[in-house]
Amino acid sequence: MDKYIFEAKIQVRDYECDIEGIVNNANYLHYIEHTRHLFLRSIGVSFAKLHEQGTDAVVSRMNLRYKAPLRCDDEFISKLWIEKKGIRYIFHQDIFRCSDNILSFHADVELVCLVNGRLAESHDYDKAFEKFIKAE
What's the per-residue H, E or C state across the chain? Predict the structure, then answer.
């Protein structure tokens, strides 16, 4: 069974590479953040609208593993699945190079919600994610 619930195809741009010709490590964070935002959009959630209503999902912790480098013009598939532990949403994200389907990068990204500036449960995010995750 495929655990992934969302994927996006993205291409490396030349300015994302360092002098060695590989993607600079910081750009992987952009790729996975962009993937999370595309996922939210795909399920009808507006990150900006929730912010206007006082709910912000913020990254509290990341565990990153760089596996195989991406290079200029590489295409890759960024995939994710999520779970919930307590008040934390954990996004498990993998990036695969399209040319050989090799795992290039893995991240476990923990997010928590601030509701009106205070750490709290988000009923909006719980409802949006209910078909994708089971709470503890």
Answer: CCCCCEEEEEECCHHHECCCCEECHHHHHHHHHHHHHHHHHHCCCCHHHHHHCCEEEEEEEEEEEECCCCECCCEEEEEEEEEEECCEEEEEEEEEECCCCCEEEEEEEEEEEEECCEECCCHHHHHHHCCCCCCC
Class of residue 96 by CB neighbours under 10 A (exposed 0-12, middle 13-18, buried 19+)? buried
117: tokens are: 């500036």
Tokens at 126, concatenated: 């719980």
**Is a pLDDT exceeding 50 seen at residue 1?**
no
Read off φ and ψ for residue 24, nearest 5 degrees: -60, 140
Is the overall model pTM greater than 0.85, yes or no?
yes
The yes-or-no verdict on residue 135 having pLDDT over 70 is no
